[in-house]
Design the sequence.
């Protein structure tokens, strides 16, 4: 698995430092509020698990599952697993692994907004602003990254590499293979 890596963009220690910083910011901003975390499956799973433990507030957690139709089909998003709990009148913070064109998150936010949350904000570990098509408000960002395809810490290439502890690029022959 590690043989397929071209270069490590964000080492594990830097990810954990960003998680600690985001957790402290969220703890400060949501003090006194019943915060409901909403993880986007599958890419945000490790981020949710680490970040929830860096937030020193009595949070609740739920997940929404989405999939886009293939790597070359843009903006067509399907909900594969809906929320288990209602978000009406709750303070919702969506946790996402990466925002690229913004189409996926924009679809999720539009769907969630119709359900009447008290507030709705986004925290993403990675932001790739170069290819943004739809503007999405990002309240918390771990890292801005260049326009490169990355894997690891939840992010996949053809469902693999999600278990890498760091964020990395793949060798071109792996991406083409
Ligand atoms: P969007 O382009 O912002 O809609 O991003 C769509 C989805 O594509 C994200 O939620 C990720 O699952 C995936 N994605 C975008 N960029 C990358 C990447 O660099 N590596 C792995 N997955 C990515
Ligand atoms: Mg993917």
Sequence:
């Amino acid at each position: 698995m590690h043989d397929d890596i071209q270069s490590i963009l964000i080492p594990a220690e830097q990810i954990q430092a960003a998680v600690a910083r985001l957790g402290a910011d969220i703890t400060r901003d949501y003090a006194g509020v019943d915060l409901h975390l909403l993880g986007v499956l599958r890419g945000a799973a490790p981020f949710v698990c680490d970040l929830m433990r860096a937030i020193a507030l009595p949070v609740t957690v739920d997940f929404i599952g989405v999939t886009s139709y293939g790597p070359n089909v843009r903006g067509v998003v399907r909900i594969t697993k809906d929320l288990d709990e209602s978000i009406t009148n709750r303070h919702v913070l969506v946790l996402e692994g990466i925002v690229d064109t913004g189409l996926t998150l924009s679809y999720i936010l539009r769907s969630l907004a119709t359900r009447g949350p008290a507030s709705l904000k986004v925290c993403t570990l990675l932001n790739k602003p170069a290819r943004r098509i739809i503007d999405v408000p990002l309240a918390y960002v771990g890292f801005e990254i260049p326009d490169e395809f990355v894997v690891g810490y939840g992010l996949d290439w053809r469902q693999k590499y999600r278990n890498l502890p760091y964020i990395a690029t793949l060798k071109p022959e792996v991406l083409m293979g």
